[in-house]
Amino acid sequence: MLASSTFAPKAWRKFNDIPALRSIKTIRGTVERIDSKLRRATIREAEGGSSLETTYDFFVGASGLRRAWPVVPQSLTKETYLSEALRHIDLVKSAKRGVVVVGGGISHLTDGEYAAS
Amino acid sequence: MPQANSRIPGAVGIEMAAEIKLVMPKQQVTLIHSREKLLSSESLPDDFKDRSRSVLEGMGIEVLMGQRVVETVNLTSEDGSPYSQLRLDRGTTVVAGHVIYAMSKSIPSTAYMPSTSLDDQQYVQVTPS
User: Fold this and answer.
1) What is the SS3 assignment for A3?
2) Which ipTM value was assigned to this complex?
3) pLDDT tens digits, residue range B78-107?
4) pTM for this entry
5) Burial grade of A18 (CB within 10 A; 0-12, 13-18, 19 or more)
6) Distance, CA of B51 to CA of B99 (rounded, Å)
7) DSSP code, position B81
């Protein structure tokens, strides 16, 4: 994804492009709040930023951990992701004195453990 | 969301270094890792960890183990291209045209959960199963 410009577009699939997900309603946005007593979710839609509320029977939270670039892309749309990825690939390709990757298996990263930015 | 410490998959740096070398074989690639073994945080057999290093080296990737970057200085070459000098804790310096930091502190994304469901590290409290 961050090395090949031909592969980069394939690494991002829009929900609409996945046949198995077409029968599921997908909302692109951010869950702002879950009220577990009322079983109600407040969602801010990505396009337009309007807020909507929806009730649920079951809630599954699979938002995982937040990581920084370049461990994960930071873009929220395929278009910005592609420009983010292609810019990165170009920097790697054109690096005249080689590429250094820092990190290959650290379990805890605490303040002060790495002085490098 | 089970409680977990901040784990950074060590595989990220390995994957990035290997992908770059695979797609750009002429590019010089170096992987710097602070511990003596790659994938040090993963509960994998030592054989596997050692093999991952030998596979990378077999591809022509320089693997520097047990060394930390303590300082990064960003400079510009005479031809205008950027480069960095990475000072390592052993006193050596590594020069790089481009540096990729393949580790990040993972933070919980639980702000939407009721605060009573979270512990003091913002992870969701769950019943052990």
Assistant:
1) coil
2) 0.83
3) 999 999 999 999 999 999 999 998 877 778
4) 0.78
5) exposed
6) 25
7) -
> Which residue does chain A place closest to B79, by CA atoms?
A96
Find residue A30's DSSP bridge partners: A44
| B63, B53 Cβ separation under 8 angstroms | yes
* Sheet containing strand A29-35, strands side by side: A29-35, A40-45, A51-55
Q: Which of A34, A101, A115 sits opposite B31 (nearest CB)?
A: A101
Q: A115 is written with which tokens?
A: 């002085």
Pairing of strands B93-96, A40-45: unpaired
Residue whose pair of structure tokens reads 């090395």 in the numeric block? A3
User: Among all residues of chain A, which has the CA nearest to that of B80?
Assistant: A96
Q: Report d(CA B53, CA B13) in Å as an integer.
A: 12
Question: What is the maximum span of chain B, computed from C-alpha positions, in angstroms?
Answer: 61
Structural contact between residues B50 and B40, judged by C-beta atoms closer than 8 angstroms: no
